Amino acid sequence: MEKALFIAAFFFAYTVQAITGFAGNVFAMPVGTQLLGLSSSVAILNAMGFFACGLLTIMNFKSVNWRELAKIVLTMLPFVLIGIWLDTVLPLHILLRIYGVIIVAIGLKNLLQKRQKFLPEWALWVILALAGLVQGMFVSGGALLVIYTVQKLQDKQQFRMTLSATWAILNLIYAVIAYQQGSFTGDVIQIVLMCIPVAVIATWLGNRLQKKISQEKFLKLTYVLLLFVGVMLLVSA
After folding, report:
1. Which residue among 23, 63, 90, 148 is least enclosed by CB atoms within 10 Å?
2. What residues have CB less than 8 Å from 27, skipping those under 6 apart?
């Protein structure tokens, strides 16, 4: 029963992921943690994040902004490693709450304002570095990365695909780490195999659904999900 419920939540989460290019694991992780346990959920969602985001990237290969992808990955990775180290030496619950409040505020601000206001280039570099740092500390740097990407890539297809390619790379790294830590037990591998066809269907469905969403509605959906991510961070802190 637990596996069936998780797969249902996974299908919904990864359909959203395919539509927007982010937020899939934010929806799936709380359900997975309750039903399967934290370490199993992390291992499954890292593996499936690599598979589903990689599949979506391959399906829309020409829409990836390779220059921005290289910039994002090469900037974030060193800070991800620093964040992973900080996670071992600092109490981070207070920082997580502050981060959640900031993301909620940004989501609300962008939903309510009529015109999108652009940040200066130096601020975008800072946000990208912070996205890597937060990803390393909390595995939740996606919200900051969305703030960066929504300004740099205003075409929804490039936005989705460049984010998807980024998650494919980062989830692969985390999946390798989880494998080395022994998180891929027999049960975890079984659920991963069950999720593969579900991920294929969710990715195909989400990819079709996003074509019916205008650029303006896509941007609003992005900020709604950003607000949801902030709330989830506050709840989990």
Report:
1. 90
2. 9, 12, 13, 16
